[in-house]
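Technical note accompanying the year-one report. For the benefit of new consortium partners, we illustrate the data format agreed upon in the data management plan: each record pairs a sequence with a structure-token string. No post-processing was applied to the example shown here.
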Amino acid sequence: MTAPVHLTVFLLYFAEIITLLVVETNRYYQDYINRLDDGPSPEPDVMEAEMFVFLALTIQMGHGVRDKLTDYWSTLDQLYTPFYGTMMKLDRYLHILRYLHFTDNRNEPDRTDENFDRLQKIRDLFEILNAIFSKFYNPFENLDIDEVILSFKGKVIFKQYIPKNASVSASKFSNFVTRLDTHMIYLGKGRQRTAQHVTATHVTVTELTRKRGRGHKLYMDNFFSSPELFDDLVKKQIYCCGTVRLNRKCMTQDLRPKTTKLKMGDICIRTRANLTAIQWQDKRDICLLTNINDAPVEDNFCNDGGKAIKLHIVMDYNHHMDYVDKGDRMANSYSNSRHMFKWTKQLFFHLLDLAILNSCILHSSCGGKKMSHNVHVP
């Protein structure tokens, strides 16, 4: 029986991972059993077919979020969905979820080593998926770089505390993304710095572009942009455009708010070699840094209604950055990741979301039948 085309495309991304999941999950469970002097009869090994069913059920759960995991197997009239019980018993699903593992703990390096890999518990899976993402996604000239924030309230040393407001604040760890073909994890302050004068975000973007050749154009927000980064990348003939913080190192001082008082529609420009800094007054100050676009004329541009006319460089930036924002929204529109006590599982389910999104994009780019990326499991 031939598999549906969209499933075949998904398996391009995930089939190689299944063996890793099965081997390490069974190994982790056997190590646990071997430590017990006396206990219940061992569960049978997880088979590849079961792992596929486990993932299918987890994906399906994203289409109808319920209060508790056990609710999907509930026999109550208002909750009863026979699909889950037919595909896999609850106890078996919980067994796989509990012992889901991604590496051999017996090979864990010394945690006191200053070069200890904080991503070690999921490094193999992460590197395999990154290689597959790059293999099947051929990036175009224009690339976007953005950060994805995963909420996680458990214990992990490289999380960041990001309080957006007093009532809703959470600890999070970041997954840096360039389009959909390469990913990096924030591993804590200082872990990604090669020199004291280079910021962690500078090193991140440099690493993300390490395998990218000349001629690409990068679009990014002010979390990454800096004159030093743009100067560094232009040596590889990689050009950049992004919003930028006015207090960034090497930014011109006379664009700062205390120096310039702009009216609606005003444009203030500073150039240095091929690098242009633009401050534009709309409803708020917007500052962009670019070596892609030509510098606009320094003047005041408003329509008859007194509203600022949007600059071509702003429209170009918004157009390209919209792809990353759209991808983020799609990947989180039915997020499979549930609140986990282990960060490795939280990150794994996020990577599963991205694999689904990437397979949908690949399917569409190959002329496949138009379909939603969050198609229900058949």
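Partners are asked to follow this layout when depositing records. The chain has nine helices and nine strands.
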